[in-house]
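Colleagues,

Please find the record for the two-part complex below.
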Amino acid sequence: AQSVTQLGSHVSVSEGALVLLRCNYSSSVPPYLFWYVQYPNQGLQLLLKYTSAATLVKGINGFEAEFKKSETSFHLTKPSAHMSDAAEYFCAVSDRGNNAGNMLTFGGGTRLMVKP
Amino acid sequence: NAGVTQTPKFQVLKTGQSMTLQCAQDMNHEYMSWYRQDPGMGLRLIHYSVGAGITDQGEVPNGYNVSRSTTEDFPLRLLSAAPSQTSVYFCASSYSRTQYFGPGTRLLVL
């Protein structure tokens, strides 16, 4: 069974600082990988997804993530944090079969706090 | 285009009561799913459906039933509510490897 580990349930950065949210997966075959964001009292929204050869994936709101097979990682970064980035972020994986992207296994989430 | 809608937004139940959480989507997506969200555990898949008339169990199906009579609707039934089912429930539909989530139903079981 696949699993996803997000290191750090809470991350705090200053406005303008680099954002780095960590995600590691365990799977014998490189899966599809996703980052979702959840703003307070809302559902989840897709930030970006890795499904093909391009290992550096750009998403919405200036976020990007790099798939590193050797490290089984898919860390999320943003060069300069904005107050509006404060939210909870979830890394998720799915296999590459018929249900690719449909049946997701989520990590525990990382709450990002941005200090003025 | 309303996307994925869920009702109710908030519900309080007593142990042993039953209820149905409603979910509807207007995007004509074949795939729909139900998740529960608990602190520190992310989202866990309860049940999913790959099309009308077809449902299957996810990671945590016990205590829940689903049916899919139409493409648009995918209700989740709690048969006999327990305090362990206190959670936030999200319905999602999926297309092109992207899930579209509803706003959630917050359920408290006393």
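The interface with chain B takes residues 4, 9, 32, 36, 41-46, 49, 51, 90, 92, 94, 99-109 of chain A (CB under 8 Å).

Comments are welcome before we finalize the supplementary table.
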